[in-house]
C-alpha cells in the first residue's frame, strides 16, 4: 500500500460520520437470466463494461481510503471469463487502516466476495478460490424447477445452480450464502422450503424484501413479503433465536434454528430500513460511483481516471462525492422517486 494514500484526512466518511468500508463492484451489466423482479424479459440491449485494469485502479484508490470489503457483482459477473485475474489483483491489495481505524502501511488482507446466479459456477469454483476469493453468495429464488424457470425465464437451469452451490462448498468457499428475493404471487410459497434447504445443505440463507429497482417498474408494497411474515412462518416450523450481528453495518438480521442446524437472515430494506449504519458504496459496470441504491445521480469516477489525473486527485474527488451520501432511502414515503437506474444497471 502506498503510504501517501493513507492521507491526513483519515478513512473515508460521509457527511453523517459513517465510515465507508464496503464496496460493491459490478464488472458487467450483462446477465444470462431475466428474472421477473429485475429484467423486462425482452432480449438484446446495450451493455457497459470496462477493462479489468480500470476496475482494479478504482478499487485500489478506494482501498487506500479505508474500504475493507469488496464484493464483485453484475449483471452476472461470471460472464467475465477473466474474472479470476481481477480477483488476483484485488487480493494483492492490503487494508489501509487497522481494526482501531489507525493508518497502517502494511495492513491485513481484504475480504473479497462474489455474488452470482450460480449458472456458470460449478466449473470455475476452484479457480475462483485459487485466485483469492474468500466468500460466495448464490442468488436462487425458488427450490422447484417450475417456479425457478418461471422466475428466471430460463428453463432447465435449476440443477446447474444447485451444482454450483455444491462446487463452491467443495472448493472451500463455505459457508456459502444463498439469497432469495421474495415477492408475492411468484415465489412467496417457498419460505418453508428454503428453511429446510438451509438446514439440509448447510448454507446461510438470506431472504431479501422486494425493492423498487426492477426495469418494468411494477413494484408495489403489496408485493413485498416482509421480515415479520417470514419469521412468523419459519418460526411456526422451527424455533428461531436471534444471533449477534457480525458488524454494526450488517444488512441482514440473523437468526439461528434453536436446535443449532442452520442459519437464516432477512434483509428488510422496506419494512425495517438499516440506513443509519450504512457503510457502502457501489461502482457500476461503466465506472460510475453511487452512494446509495436509490441515488438519483451517478458520479463518473471512471471518467476522472481517463483525464490522466493522479490518485491524489481521485481521492479528493471520492471524498467530495461521499460527503454528499444520502442519509437514507425513502421507499414507500410520499414523493418517493425510484432511482435513476434499475438494479441490473447499478449492480447487485
TrEMBL record:
[4Fe-4S] cluster 2 binds at residues 275, 278, 292. Its EC number is 4.1.99.22. S-adenosyl-L-methionine binds at residues 37, 75, 139, 211. Keywords: 4Fe-4S, GTP-binding, Iron, Iron-sulfur, Lyase, Metal-binding, Molybdenum cofactor biosynthesis, Nucleotide-binding, S-adenosyl-L-methionine. Binds 2 [4Fe-4S] clusters. Binds 1 [4Fe-4S] cluster coordinated with 3 cysteines and an exchangeable S-adenosyl-L-methionine and 1 [4Fe-4S] cluster coordinated with 3 cysteines and the GTP-derived substrate. GTP binds at residues 24, 71, 115, 177, 280-282. The keyword Transport does not apply. Its cofactor is [4Fe-4S] cluster. GO terms for biological process: Mo-molybdopterin cofactor biosynthetic process. It is an enzyme of class 4 (lyase). It catalyses: GTP + AH2 + S-adenosyl-L-methionine = (8S)-3',8-cyclo-7,8-dihydroguanosine 5'-triphosphate + 5'-deoxyadenosine + L-methionine + A + H(+). [4Fe-4S] cluster 1 binds at residues 31, 35, 38. Residues 15-241 form the Radical SAM core domain. Pathway: Cofactor biosynthesis; molybdopterin biosynthesis. GO terms for molecular function: 4 iron, 4 sulfur cluster binding; cyclic pyranopterin monophosphate synthase activity; GTP 3',8'-cyclase activity; GTP binding; metal ion binding; S-adenosyl-L-methionine binding. InterPro entries: Aldolase_TIM (IPR013785), Elp3/MiaA/NifB-like_rSAM (IPR006638), MoaA (IPR013483), MoaA-like (IPR040064), MoaA_twitch (IPR010505), MoCo_biosynth_MoaA/MoaC (IPR050105), rSAM (IPR007197), rSAM_sf (IPR058240). NCBIfam families: moaA. Catalyzes the cyclization of GTP to (8S)-3',8-cyclo-7,8-dihydroguanosine 5'-triphosphate. Monomer and homodimer. Belongs to the radical SAM superfamily. MoaA family. This is GTP 3',8-cyclase. It comes from Terriglobus roseus. The gene is moaA.
